[in-house]
Amino acid sequence: MLNYPIANIGGIDSSVSAESIHYVDTINVTNYNYEGQPLTRQFWNANVTSLRFNGQDIPLFGSLQEGLVIGLLDTGASDVMCRPGAVVAAINGTKHSNGHDIFIECDKPQIMEFQIEENWYPINPIDLITPGMTADYNGTTFCRASIGSWSRTGGDCIIGLPFFRNVYTVFDYVNSDFQPQPRVGLASTTNIEEALKEFSSKWKTRML
C-alpha cells in the first residue's frame, strides 16, 4: 500500500484515534545568530531513541546536545538522512554508489524503523525507493534508495518524506510565543507485515 501525507490545518482528522497519537516536546537547539549561541526553539524535531534497519540496531550518536539524538522533522526533505554508513552496511542484497546516491536491488525490500520515546514507527519499504530514479550496473537495473547523509547544524538526523508517508503527524503549539513548549504528535499508519506482503506486487509502480 502506498501512503501519502494528508494535511489538516487547525485540527486533527476525526478518522485518527486520539489514543493512537503519541506526543513529544520539541527540543531547543543552538542558535548561531545570537551572541552566546543560546538554545532556542527553531525546528520541529524529536529525540530519536533508536534506529533499526533490516532488524539491525544502528548506533546513534548525538553531536548537538549531550544525551540526545535530535531528529529534525523535515516535510520538505525527500530522503531520510541518519547514519548512512551504518544503514548502507545493513542493506539487503547488492548495493552500488555513484559517490553520492545509493542504489539498491529494486525487488529487495528494506525495513527502516525509528523509535521515538517508547514507540516504534516503521517505514514502508516502497517509500525507501526514490520514484523514477534508476541506474544500470552490469546490465542490472538498480533503484535509488531514499537515504542520504547530513553533517550540518539543526539536527543529528534529517527525517524526511519517507517517514511522513507512514505516520500521522500533529505539529502542535498554543501561540506565537511558543509557550508552553511546542510538541509533535505521531501515530503510525503502517503495518509492516502487510507492507512486506504487498511489496513484490507493488514496487514496480513506484518507478512509473
Characteristics of this structure?
Peptidase_aspartic_dom_sf, Aspartic_peptidase_A1, 4-stranded antiparallel sheet, PEPTIDASE_A1, globular, 8-stranded mixed sheet, Cathepsin D, subunit A, domain 1, aspartic-type endopeptidase activity, Peptidase A1 domain-containing protein
Overall pLDDT level:
89
Give the overall silhouette: globular
Radius of gyration: 18 Å
How would a textbook summarize the main sheet?
Answer: 8 strands, mixed
**How far apart, in Å, are the first and last alpha carbons?**
15 Å
Low-confidence stretches: none
- Corresponding CATH architecture: Beta Barrel
- List the helices and strands in order: EEEEEEEHEEEEEEEEHEEH
**Total tally of structural domains:** 1
- The helix content, as a percent range, equals 10-25%
Write the CATH fold name.
Cathepsin D, subunit A, domain 1
Oligomer: single chain
CATH class: Mainly Beta
Beta-strand content bin = 35-45%
H/I helix tally: 3
> Which secondary-structure class do the elements indicate?
mainly beta
CATH superfamily: Acid Proteases
Total strand segments:
17
Protein name: Peptidase A1 domain-containing protein
Organism: Rhizoctonia solani
Domain Peptidase A1: 1-187
InterPro entries: Aspartic_peptidase_A1, PEPTIDASE_A1, Peptidase_aspartic_dom_sf
